[in-house]
């Protein structure tokens, strides 16, 4: 394995920063799309950054103990670790060494970290929220894993850089979305659920359990969760683009594609109300799982 | 007051000692004013809506006037919020909840009183059950008068608060720490001498360097008997002894 350590080091530092900046833009896009659908003007351009700096600039602070601090570090750290496995144009990072399976594991770390941290707050809303978050993880991970398995079988590799290379070599007709449309639909639905947006917002639910896991988070803790949201939106959209939309040939098409994924998801989520926990599980295990299984069968039959 | 010094210090979240205005370097000044700017452009509101002024907030938030373009968005818990927005009359029972909520918010925090009821009691002037002036019990940054103020007035008030925060003048949240004895006295006058909240305001003031002339006094001396001293949890004993629960046997 020939690894140029200097380049790798630069990429390891640069990729999370890129993820954060692009994530800020994506969060802005989501808020803007939501505002426009509600016929509002929406937040100004720098709003996500203002929010984060304001939260980090709070002067008093409540910590509920060491485990909560550790949980928040796990939340942000898990996504930072995931970002370096997601190839962007010009930077592969660790994507050649780790693969899709590693990435799935790393993307589960933040949920577990949140569960660990919120457990110490002793706030019932937080506990309910985290129970729902883990339940919904159980619900969306089944279609998601089926989608990933289908993609791995189709491309014959679980290496993300090779998946991108195969799609870019074959042109538009070899994109994942053309080769396995059913899996692309299943993946899109489970990516909504992964973002915790409206139909599957069951663990945030501001009017019901007061933002669930975030209920006791103040100042820097909430700031860390806002940073996490940037990373999360970025990671989910880049993973979708990598698997189904041919990755990024250059930065322009790359940003265009991830913005399109988030645009579609934000437009859909804005017009839906929230599922109950049991309904969300039932729905996720019935429709996206069914569609993905059918897609998997078609892929395996080829 | 000497025995209060024996209290253990609340464990701080790392590196959050409150810096006062002693930062003088050019670079530090630039950072501080940038943070003030961000504070003024991102205000999370916790609205405490028991009065009729609440009806004017939905139009201010939704498509007609759209607060979000000013960076103002509603939040649902006191921990996350910067502004406590109190709309309308404050009954004595309500005021207890408002104080509990206010003490859970993290500074810098701001209080806005909407409607004339928070200013001087309004049409409830003669009521035995309402608190007349909100700023006797809490430091209020801004009043928006009117019965009820229209959404334009609400937004105008919020924009004035924004300018106040940007210029660094909105420091009345420190006043609650620095003159806690005064505020507590007013609260005790209304609720009785046994009034106390779970938040140890004096200890927080000490921790964040906000102890002022009026933090301690005759009213805070009453709080002494309600203070629960922090104790180290003896883990060995907890592990060895079976937990006693009040659950009924199945």
List key phrases describing it:
heterodimer, A: 302 residues, mainly alpha, 72% helix, 0% strand, B: 250 residues, alpha/beta, Rossmann fold, 2 domains, five-stranded parallel sheet, two-stranded antiparallel ribbon, 10 helices
Question: How would you summarize this macromolecular structure in one to three sentences?
Answer:
Chain A has 302 residues and is mostly helical. Helix content of chain A is 72%, strand content 0%.
Would you give an account of this structure?
The complex is a heterodimer of chains A (302) and B (250). With 302 residues, chain A is mainly α. Chain A has one domain. Chain A has helices at residues 5-37, 47-56, 66-83, 100-119, 124-155, 160-170, 176-179, 181-195, 206-209, 219-244, 251-270, 277-301. The radius of gyration of chain A is 19 Å and the shape is globular. With 250 residues, chain B is of the alpha/beta class. Chain B has helices at 26-41, 57-61, 92-104, 116-120, 151-166, 172-178, 180-191, 201-207, 218-221, 235-240; strands spanning 43-48, 72-74, 83-87, 90-91, 110-114, 130-131, 142-144. Chain B starts with 25 loop residues before the first helix and ends in a 10-residue tail after the last helix. Classes of the chains: A mainly alpha (302), B alpha/beta (250). At the A-B interface, α2 and α10 of A face α1 of B.
């Amino acid at each position: 394995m020939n690894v140029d350590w200097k380049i790798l080091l630069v990429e390891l530092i640069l990729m999370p920063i890129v993820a954060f900046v692009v994530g800020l833009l994506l969060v802005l896009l989501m808020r803007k799309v939501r505002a426009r659908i509600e016929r509002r003007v929406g937040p100004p351009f720098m709003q996500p950054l203002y929010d984060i700096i304001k939260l980090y600039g709070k002067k008093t602070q409540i910590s509920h103990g060491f485990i909560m601090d550790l949980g928040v570090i796990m939340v942000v750290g898990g996504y930072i670790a995931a970002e370096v496995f997601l190839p962007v144009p010009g930077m592969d990072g660790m994507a050649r060494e780790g693969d899709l399976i590693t990435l799935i594991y790393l993307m589960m770390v933040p949920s577990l970290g949140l569960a660990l941290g919120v457990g110490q707050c002793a706030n019932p809303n937080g506990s309910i929220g985290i129970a729902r978050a883990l339940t919904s993880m159980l619900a969306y991970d089944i279609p998601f894993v089926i989608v990933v398995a289908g993609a791995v079988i189709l491309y014959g590799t679980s290496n993300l850089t090779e998946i991108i290379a195969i799609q870019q070599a074959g042109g538009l007709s070899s994109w994942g979305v053309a080769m396995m449309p059913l899996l692309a639909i299943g993946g899109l639905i489970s990516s909504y659920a992964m973002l915790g947006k409206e139909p599957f917002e069951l663990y945030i639910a501001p009017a019901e359990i007061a933002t669930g896991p975030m209920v006791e988070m103040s100042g820097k803790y909430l700031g860390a969760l806002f940073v996490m949201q940037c990373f999360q939106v970025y990671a989910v959209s880049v993973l979708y683009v990598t698997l189904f939309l041919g990755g990024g040939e250059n930065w322009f098409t790359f940003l265009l594609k991830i913005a399109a994924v988030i645009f579609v998801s934000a437009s859909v989520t804005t017009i839906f109300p929230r599922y109950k926990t049991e309904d969300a599980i039932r729905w996720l295990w019935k429709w996206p799982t069914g569609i993905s299984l059918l897609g998997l069968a078609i892929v395996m039959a080829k | 007051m000497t025995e209060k010094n024996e209290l253990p210090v609340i464990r701080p979240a790392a590196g959050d000692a409150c810096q006062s205005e002693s930062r003088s370097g050019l670079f530090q000044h630039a950072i501080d004013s940038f943070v003030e700017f961000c504070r003024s452009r991102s205000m999370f509101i916790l609205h405490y809506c028991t009065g009729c002024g609440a009806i004017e907030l939905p139009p201010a938030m939704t498509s007609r006037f759209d607060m979000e373009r000013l960076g103002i968005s509603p939040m649902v818990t006191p921990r996350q919020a910067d502004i406590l927005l109190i709309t309308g009359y404050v009954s004595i029972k309500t005021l207890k909840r408002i104080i509990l909520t206010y003490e859970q918010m993290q500074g810098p925090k701001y209080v806005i009183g909407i409607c004339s009821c928070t200013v001087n009691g309004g049409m409830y002037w003669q009521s035995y059950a309402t608190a007349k002036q909100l700023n006797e019990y809490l430091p209020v940054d801004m009043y928006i008068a009117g019965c009820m103020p229209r959404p334009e007035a609400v937004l105008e008030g919020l924009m004035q608060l924004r300018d106040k925060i940007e210029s660094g003048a909105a420091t009345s949240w420190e006043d609650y720490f620095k003159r806690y004895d005064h505020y507590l006295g007013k609260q005790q006058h209304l609720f009785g001498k046994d009034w106390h909240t779970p938040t140890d305001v004096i200890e927080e003031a000490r921790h964040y360097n906000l102890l002022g002339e009026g933090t301690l006094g005759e009213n805070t001396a009453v709080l002494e008997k309600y203070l629960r001293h922090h104790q180290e949890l003896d883990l060995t004993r907890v592990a060895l002894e079976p937990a006693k629960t009040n659950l009924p046997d199945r």
